[in-house]
Amino acid sequence: xxxxxxxxxxxxxxxxxxxxxxxxxxxxxxxxxxxxxxxxxxxxxxxxxxxxxxxxxxxxxxxxxxxxxxxxxxxxxxxxxxxxxxxxxxxxxxxxxxxxxxxxxxxxxxxxxxxxxxxxxxxxxxxxxxxxxxxxxxxxxxxxxxxxxxxxxxxxxxxxxxxxxxxxxxxxxxxxxxxxxxxxxxxxxxxxxxxxxxxxxxxxxxxxxxxxxxxxxxxxxxxxxxxxxxxxxxxxxxxxxxxxxxxxxxxxxxxxxxxxxxxxxxxxxxxxxxxxxxxxxxxxx
Length: 285
Fold this sequence. Notes:
Blueprint: H1 5-12, E1 18-22, H2 28-41, E2 50-54, H3 57-71, H4 73-76, E3 80-83, H5 84-95, E4 99-100, H6 103-116, H7 128-140, H8 152-157, H9 159-168, H10 181-198, E5 200-201, H11 205-216, H12 218-227, E6 230-233, H13 241-250, E7 255-259, E8 280-284
Parallel strand pairs: 1-7, 1-8, 2-3, 2-6, 4-5, 6-7
């Protein structure tokens, strides 16, 4: 693949924070992979000190395959390529013994908590999709449950969550406002307590518990920072607060991000535009 001037500048960038703005189909993955190859072969960076984060397993596989073709299987395997959740789960497994909830287990816990605590009187009243999404939004925004201060003021503070959920589920028969907000927060709190006491985690905990671990265990956090001296992130426009916090804890001013603010397909996941820390931008469309 032939690269234009801006792409070559991004590929050859070595130290510091760099933001690449690029649309779909413009070769941004090729730029990211070629930059990794350039770091290793031109700048003699240790492959094991490079961390690359993608948003799903499909793009993770694409990056790994391209690296293998460019660097050879043995060297490519030394480069850490993972999703945000996969990387967070690795941190959790390093520090604690937790089991991952299945979807069936999660539904059973929510059902039992709702009925036993008389939040709802029968299963027909429980809209699981709405409850799951409410909890997920809260956790991705690093908002812990707070039963002590559940009142109408929370409604204003959480207005953006309610609006997003209503748009997302507007085709369903019930909206988030059909539930009392204090009940949603109560379910959230009970659900978190049940998971903690049972040694269980869900998908969102892969981020939130990883953030909590890095925040509280300074020694372990420093070890991660020393291990990965170069961090590359694809689809930066979809990073939410928990993911950004995770990045901020482990990066040491060698952060290379690729994204397109106009390709914000995961807006419903409570993402935020967070390019401000990057001092140089390369734009190619």
